Amino acid sequence: MRVVLLCRYDGSGYHGFQIQPNNNTVQEEIEKALKKINKKDIRVYMSGRTDSGVHAYGQVLHFDTELNIPNEAWKKALNANLPADIRIFGVTTSNEDFHVRYNSTRKTYHYKLYIGQNVDPFLLNYVGQHKYNFNFEKAQKALNYFIGEHDFSSFCSKNSSVEDKIREIYYFNMYYDKTNPRVINFDVCGNGFLYNMVRIIIGTIQDVAAGKYGAEYVKEILDKKERKYAGPKADAAGLYLKEVIYNNEEINKFIKEGLAKYENI
């Protein structure tokens, strides 16, 4: 049986999602919980890995098991064996043709950017920081250049092994947070993202907003196809995997209904 999970986690206490030697990760914690329930090692697959300090509102996972347990019982059993900063909030089943990574058609990431010299300590692990003047209009012009299909080589970490760096951005929104005027939110949706792509894009927009260069320079950065021309990586703490969409109507309905419980994000 292939079991599909919707997972939320606070990534500030983990070295990313994917298992690493000698570091605690979200995947390791979930697989430890699965081992207790299944009495053997179970591998869990992710829709996409998140780096150290990055969070998830809607990470999608799957694993295969011989156990026949009701969905609600899976959720209760897993959460009973997981740390409080990792929660399973949706469980369904699918056939073996479905894969959470290879069948995804679009992903949405959310980024929270705090404007100011001193971050509220209660927000420290959940926002990126911009210490300087932030020109909202210039930033808005800059993010428009990212929409559409482009070669994002300039916005990918050098150690990426991916050869095809063409991706399409469907929408890219920026807006002030309703509860905190010092926080600016970003939502970016595309058919896929390269390693550190979102953080480098946000870092570049920060440079534009601070007046380091004009918004139109983003097009030149894209055309140059070299990492050195783009801005720095934005802080990991501000990044959240928000939603994953698939070429599977039943799975998409499952995800939409699960995320609807948390519309305040």
UniProtKB/TrEMBL annotation:
The keyword tRNA processing applies. Signal peptide: none annotated. InterPro entries: PsdUridine_synth_cat_dom_sf, PsdUridine_synth_TruA, PsdUridine_synth_TruA_a/b_dom, PsdUridine_synth_TruA_C, TruA/RsuA/RluB/E/F_N. Keywords: Isomerase, tRNA processing. It catalyses: uridine(38/39/40) in tRNA = pseudouridine(38/39/40) in tRNA. One of its GO terms (biological process) is tRNA pseudouridine synthesis. It is an enzyme of class 5 (isomerase). Residues 8-103, 142-247 form the Pseudouridine synthase I TruA alpha/beta domain. One of its GO terms (molecular function) is RNA binding. Its EC number is 5.4.99.12. Substrate binds at Y109. It holds the Pfam family PseudoU_synth_1. The active site is at D51. Belongs to the tRNA pseudouridine synthase TruA family. Formation of pseudouridine at positions 38, 39 and 40 in the anticodon stem and loop of transfer RNAs. Homodimer. This is tRNA pseudouridine synthase A.
